[in-house]
Amino acid sequence: GRRGVPSLLADGGTGQEEHIASDVTQLIGWTPLIELKRIAGKEGVGARIVGKIEAYQPLCSVKDRSALRMIEDAEEKGLISPGVTTLVEPTSGNLGLDPTLGFPGITDKVEQLKKELPNVHVLDQFSNPANPDAHIRWTGPEIWKDTAGKVDIFVAGSGSGGTVSGVGKYLKMQNPNVKIICVEPAESPVISGGEPGKHKIQGIGPGFLPEILDTSVIDETVTVTTEDAMTNARRLAMEEGLLVGISSGANLAACLKVAAREENKGKMIVTMFPSGGERYMNSDLFATVREECIAMTF
Ligand code: PMP
């Protein structure tokens, strides 16, 4: 595990040592990797596609490590203290769960709460270097170790940009030839130089360029439509048995494009499945499934 709690998956379960986390933060990190052999096989792509399943986290998403690192960092700097500070955070993804306002609404709400509540601190994932630092310290090394250094290409959607910037930086430090591919919504291709727009890939494509997004480590940006993201998320559930969120589908769509390239034959592509599918039961992702379930109930 992240801080010395041996992973239950990695350890053979010898029964010789206790495997008990001393608090919930000890369970953060070391999410499992899975190769998508069924989908890659059906598509006939030459590259291996490997997903990192972030639903295996205490709060079920890729944001657990960032939250922990930003809080640790603010505590180390004496900016916040338990029982005194109220943390307020603008988020459209999994750092918090408030999808209804959208972005300027979220920023206005943060300003309002700053006035209303005493001792408010905003960690600000979009400008806080502790956010990508979580992925330099933990997510990147996890991928490097679990692939035995064989990762050739890393593909990740960008919300705050923490994952792609942090993992990208770490992997390039290990092997400068690793390619880093960023994924964003085709309807809001801001990193690709286009205009912000409405889309339904929750957690990526905030419509602006975050301060912490490190474009120097990104070799290529791939755009994916909301429709393709949803289709591919359903594919992961139906064909691989992985109930994951919409941005996971976007990452898979991008991986399939990259994996089909002749030059990537035999290469290992690692991507993130940032959240679990339960969180999107009320979204368009499961609209058809939901209607069928309701029809079956009566
Ligand atoms: N997918 C989902 C579902 C998310 O919640 C987030 C975080 N906003 C991301 C992808 C992107 O992660 P990051 O903020 O590290 O770019």
Describe this structure in words.
With 298 residues, this protein is of the alpha/beta class. It has 2 domains: 210 residues, Rossmann fold, CATH 3.40.50.1100; 61 residues, no CATH class. 35% of the residues lie in helices and 12% in strands. It contains 8 helices and 8 strands. Strands 1-2-8-5-6-7 form a 6-stranded mixed beta sheet. It has a two-stranded parallel sheet with strand order 3-4. Helix 2 crosses helix 4, helix 4 crosses helix 5 and helix 6 crosses helix 7. The relative contact order is 0.15. The site of 4'-deoxy-4'-aminopyridoxal-5'-phosphate has 19 residues, from helix 5. Pathway: Amino-acid biosynthesis. Keywords: Amino-acid biosynthesis, Cysteine biosynthesis, Pyridoxal phosphate, Transferase. Its cofactor is pyridoxal 5'-phosphate. One of its GO terms (molecular function) is transferase activity.
Which keywords apply here?
alpha/beta; about 35% helix; about 300 residues; 2 domains; two-stranded parallel sheet; single chain; TrpB-like_PALP; binds 4'-deoxy-4'-aminopyridoxal-5'-phosphate; globular; 8 helices
> Mean pLDDT across all residues, rounded?
92
Shape: globular
Task: Give, in spatial order, the strands making up the sheet with the most strands.
Answer: 1-2-8-5-6-7
By oligomeric state, this entry counts as single chain
Class of secondary structure makeup: alpha/beta
Helix tally? 8
Rg, alpha carbons: 19 Å
Which fold name is given in CATH as the topology of the largest domain? Rossmann fold
At the first level of CATH, the class of the largest domain is Alpha Beta
Q: What is the count of β-strands?
A: 8
Estimate the strand proportion. 5-15%
Bound molecules: 4'-deoxy-4'-aminopyridoxal-5'-phosphate
The amount of helix comes to 25-40%
How far from one another are the termini?
46 Å
Characterize the biggest β-sheet: 6 strands, mixed
Q: Write the CATH architecture name of the largest domain.
A: 3-Layer(aba) Sandwich
- How do the helices and strands follow one another from N- to C-terminus? EHEHEHEHEHEEHHEH
Organism: Aegilops tauschii subsp. strangulata
Cofactor: pyridoxal 5'-phosphate
Protein name: Tryptophan synthase beta chain-like PALP domain-containing protein
Pathway: Amino-acid biosynthesis
